[in-house]
Automatic annotation (TrEMBL):
Record keywords: Kinase, Signal, Transferase
An annotated GO BP: skeletal system development
One Gene Ontology MF term: non-membrane spanning protein tyrosine kinase activity
Residues annotated as domain FAM69 protein-kinase: 2-116
Gene Ontology CC terms: extracellular region
Gene for this chain: Pkdcc
Protein name: PKDCC kinase
Organism this protein belongs to: Atlantisia rogersi
Length: 246
């Protein structure tokens, strides 16, 4: 969410009515999340000036660990230097820390492609935004789950009940520090996650939703007392329920 919001912001800056805008003091502390969107807190160090040049050799974009040769345009400006400076700063301050983690395994290769392409400045802001939107579409639609074995059949579903909330086993990246609360596309994906965790014996698809509209599933290690709840369904592993419940 943070990286996508940042890319949308940089897309606007690259195509603003004032021209391509560069953030000269590009640091995480210059940004804040407001209603799920990343905002710049200080525009004092923003500029529309692009480096003047006479030849391509005048257009090297230097960072502490990398340098990138750019083209000198016929207008005597280093082509795309503001856009590329913003994008590489996004890569080194945000993407490298946030993209490799917490995505479903099937989507990680797509995020690695974005990471590598922005780290080498092979992608401009247009290509980067398109790549992020493709990943978001796959994530929200559940298309990344295709061609996976169906595991929900290994679970008993008890409609109209939920389990007692309490501290349980931890998992990463959980939305709750008390237990294992993860975003899922469907009960089928939740069953696959439960199967992959040795502690998991049951799960509930909660009424909570993430920013993408995906529900949160609560995974539990033991069959605690059930509470009537017309809006809930408890899914229990058949192997766990045998002999423990009638």
């Amino acid at each position: 969410q943070i990286c996508l919001s940042l890319v949308k912001l940089l897309f606007y800056l690259a195509h603003s009515p004032l021209g391509s805008i560069v953030l000269l003091d590009f640091q995480p502390r210059q940004f804040v999340m407001v209603d799920g969107n990343l905002k710049v807190t200080d525009m004092d160090d923003a500029s529309t000036e692009e480096l003047s040049c006479k030849e391509d050799n005048d257009c090297t974009l230097d960072f502490p660990t990398k340098s990138f040769p750019l083209k000198c345009s016929v207008a005597g400006k280093c082509e795309g230097i503001n856009e590329k400076k913003n994008l590489f700063n996004a890569y080194r301050y945000f993407f490298t820390y946030l993209l490799p983690h917490s995505a479903p395994p099937a989507l990680r290769p797509f995020l690695s492609d974005i990471l590598n392409a922005t780290g080498d400045l092979r992608y401009g802001i247009n290509e980067t935004l398109k790549a992020f939107e493709t990943v978001l579409h796959l994530y929200k639609s559940g298309l990344y789950l295709q061609k996976r074995p169906l595991l929900l059949k290994d679970y008993i579903s008890l409609k109209g009940f939920r389990t007692v909330e309490g501290e349980d086993y931890k998992c990463w990246p959980s939305y709750s520090h008390l237990g294992c609360l993860l975003s899922v596309h469907s009960a089928e994906e939740a069953a696959a996650i439960c199967n992959s965790q040795s502690q998991c014996q049951s799960f509930i698809i909660t009424q909570q939703r993430t920013w993408t509209g995906r529900p949160l599933a609560s995974f539990q290690s033991s069959l605690t007392d059930l509470i009537p709840d017309a809006n809930s369904v408890v899914y229990i592993k058949r192997s766990a329920s045998s002999g423990e419940r009638p």
